[in-house]
Write a structure and sequence with these properties.
Elements (H helix, E strand, L loop, with lengths): L20 H12 L3 H24 L9 H13 L9 H26 L7 E3 L14 E3 H14 L1 H12 L4 H8 L3 H21 L1
Antiparallel strand pairs: 1-2
Helix pairs in contact: 1-2, 2-3, 2-4, 3-4, 4-6, 4-7, 5-6, 5-8, 6-7, 6-8, 7-8
Length: 207
Amino acid sequence: MSVSTPPNGVSPSSPSPSDDEHHVTELLRAWGAGDEDASEALARIVYAELRRQARRALRREGDGHTLQPTALVHEAWLRLDGQHDARWESRTQFFAVAAQMMRRVLVDHARTRRALKRGAAAEQITLGAIDAATPEAALDVVDLLALDDALGRLAALDPRKARLVELRYFAGLSIPEAAAALGISEATVGREWAVARMWLQRELGEA
């Protein structure tokens, strides 16, 4: 399955006049209602963006990781297809949920590998690459399962900050994209992202 690259290099998940947000939203709602034709049409539109998310997430995985972007997308899509009670509202909401599904796939994969290879080293992921433009890399390399556990604790304290980390890491969303997905300002995202990173640095450093 292939999707043509949008003009001017605009990300499919970025708000822009060329995006047919209404059309995608209608397809999402029809898909949620069980319309198979809508599922096929939606897949053609979003597949390229899902692969972009998958590549970004897997790029931060250690060298020993065996998942490929296509496999990650397919597994995440199957889980998305199982969200029968989801109330799809927008394209950005869909990609936010997709990020959540990719997180679950990666975590399940890491747990399975650890169970099969007892005593194997923890799977390492790179969070510092999210802010590659900044010289510091406070969360360069962490254990994926430790990160998942830490995000669970963060969600209990501040669900939005945990969601933000999920969007930034597992979906690779930019600050503007994450702001659109969460319905808050870019300035707020910037502040909360900085706080969330410091919290995770402390939690993972003590793990």
